[in-house]
Structure formats: C-alpha cells, structure tokens
Write a structure and sequence with these properties.
Blueprint (H helix, E strand, L loop, with lengths): L1 H22 L2 H8 L4 H6 L3 H13 L12 H15 L9 H11 L5 H24 L6 H19 L1 H7 L7 H25 L9
Helix pairs in contact: 1-2, 1-4, 1-6, 4-6, 4-7, 5-7, 5-10, 7-8, 8-10
C-alpha cells in the first residue's frame, strides 16, 4: 500500500509539472504509476488532495529532516542545503518539485490558499523561528520576516536564474559539488548579515508592506 501511494505521488508530480493542475488527469497519473484508477480515491480522496500531497512532498521534505536539537546557525545551513537539493539543481533539468511550485506561483490553482496555509506556511514559520533565534527578535518581527524573505530569495534565484547564470559565468556547471558550495555561500553570507543585525539591534522604522 505504501509503495503504491509513493508511486502515485511521484507520477502525479511528473504529470502536474508537465501539464499543470487543470490539464492533468487522474487517468494519466494512474497509468504512469502503474496503478488502478481507483487507487487515487483510496489513498487521497480526489485529485485535489493528491495535488496537495504532491506539494507537501515538494516543500515539506526539504526541511522536515533538519534536526531540532542542533543550534540555529546549523539549522539554517541545513535548511538552505535541503531547499537547494530539493529543487533538483544538481540534475540536468529542474525536478518536478521546482516546476510544480513555479506553476503555482505563476498561475495559482484553486487550492493556492491551502497550499500556502497548510504547506508553505509551516515551513516559512520554522525558518522565521530559526532566524529569529539568530538575530534575537520574535519570529513575527518585521526584521525577522525581511531576513527570512532574503534567505529564500537567494535560494530561488539559483533555480529561476540558472540559465542566465550559466550563460554569464562561462565554465560554471550546476552539479552536486556546486550546489553544496552555493548552499555554504548563501548560509555564510546570510549569517554574516544576521549576526550584524543582532549586534546593531537598530530596528527598521515601521513601514506598511
């Protein structure tokens, strides 16, 4: 049973990435997974719940395995590394995890609110919690939120901007070693800024974002 569920998520990820939520069909997903068409209803209920399960696999597994018992600096490094790897940057082409989220950002599906509330939100909250511990501010503080957004932006840049980066940087090749170096750079760059923010403790003027 667990194997069938895993095959359905993997197959659905590929189909949703290729065709988008609206055009993807349960029949195509089951055919690719080698499963009976009733398997989707049995394991997920319907196409919408299967899509949410795919999004959870895409987003949650990127940071869920980061240990809570290590320090916030180490957690931040591990989270950045996990996010980069989950986007499939070491592969020749971006994995379905990244392509699905790209689809969702450009053309939100009817379940976009649930994706944000149930999947992205908890991960973002955890990142804010880690950053808040580093800079000594609450997770909901404006500076904490801005810092979290900056970290995420650096990660996303390497996924969205990969073709441009490779064009502008002759000899640059995205592979496992490169992804590891990028993760360490983003973490080091971010931690330098976050530690400086903690030392300065000069909150930004309140603004309406």
């Amino acid at each position: 049973m667990a194997a069938t569920r895993a095959r359905l998520i993997e197959a659905a990820g590929e189909v949703f990435a290729e065709h988008g939520y609206h055009s993807a069909t349960v029949r195509d997903i089951c055919a690719r997974a080698g499963a009976n068409i009733a398997a989707v209803n049995y394991h997920f209920g319907d196409k919408t719940e299967l899509y949410l399960a795919v999004i959870r696999e895409s987003v949650c597994s990127a940071t869920d395995l980061v240990p809570e018992e290590i320090g916030p600096d180490e957690q931040l490094v591990a989270m950045i590394t996990a996010m980069l790897r989950k986007m499939g940057l070491a592969a020749e082409h971006p994995g379905w995890h990244f392509r699905i989220m790209a689809h969702e950002m450009v053309a939100p599906t009817p379940v976009f609110a649930r994706v944000v509330d149930e999947v992205i939100g908890p991960q973002y909250n955890r990142l804010r919690g880690v950053i808040g511990r580093i800079i000594g501010l609450p997770p909901g503080h404006e500076q904490t939120r801005l810092a979290a957004n900056s970290v995420v932006a650096q990660v996303i840049f390497y996924a969205h901007g990969r073709p441009v980066i490779e064009r502008l940087w002759p000899g640059f090749a995205m592979n496992k070693r490169t992804v590891t170096r990028i993760a360490r750079h983003i973490a080091s760059f971010s931690l330098c800024s976050l530690r400086a923010m903690r030392r300065a403790r000069r909150p930004l003027k309140e603004t309406t974002l």
